[in-house]
Amino acid sequence: MVNPVHLRTLLEVTRLGSFAAAASRLGYTASAVSQQMSALERDTGVHLFTRSARSVVPTDAAVVMARHAAKVLTDIEALMAAASKTQDATSQELRLGIFPSLATYVLPKILKNPAWKDLGIDLRVSVAEPAQTIQGLRTGGDVDVALVYQVGQSGLAWPHTINRQWIGDDNFRVVLPSGWGFRSEAKVAADHLSDMPWIMHHPGTSDATVIERLFASCNLHPRVVAYSDDFHASLEMAAAGLGAALVPELALLHRPSGVVVLDVPEIRLARNVFALLINEKKTARVQLFVDLLADTFGSLGSSDK
Predict the structure, then answer these.
(1) Among 61, 229, 273, 280, which residue has the least CB neighbours within 10 Å?
(2) Would you say the pTM of this structure is higher than 0.90?
């Protein structure tokens, strides 16, 4: 299936003549636009752009596809408007449960995107950790769509009637105080970090259990100086020189000065981000919202993180 969000991006690229200009217009990064166009080429099996170091030139096929895409997007907007009228409403209410870092760094970008206004969604937001959000997703609950994450195969469970859609992966990174003498993105073996003071998750949580097992497999036995489940607090304490920490890339979008990020090959862990949808609430509008969410999350490239 062709993603309508990618069609809208194609229109802007062909109209403006560059990935960078389209990115500026749509609120993405240029790399995110490039990734969307590559995905569109894979989905359609059509070569859309001739790329060089300094420019991208639409092929004839891209121009033809853009012309038809304008009609398809107009038809989608007409479809949603017609559906809205049949419900005697101009918008669809969507009760969204979302975890804090996604609400902080991704949701605002969606709300500022011109595509958001076209969706006709009346959003109601509840910010909470995944376990709490899933409770509201059950039949008769107060959430229609839950945005959650899992670390490894850790302990979240949801009803079998729920539809799950992968949004992306939020990779964990090792951060250290900059005063410890490591350069940013230096490749360091895990055993070199074993004797250092660490800021860790509170014991007993599912995330902490996964991290403890990973560290043990690397023969990394941290000397714990603080427990914190708040990544911003962990980053600030690391910046102040208290200890090393393991934090996801979303939290690093606003990292404080005074920390460096290391590449530790043995420590490869991610928060797998999913949208959980009640099937009867999965309308065309909601699916477009989830697609827009996935593209916005994907646009937060490594240069931003």
Answers:
(1) 280
(2) no
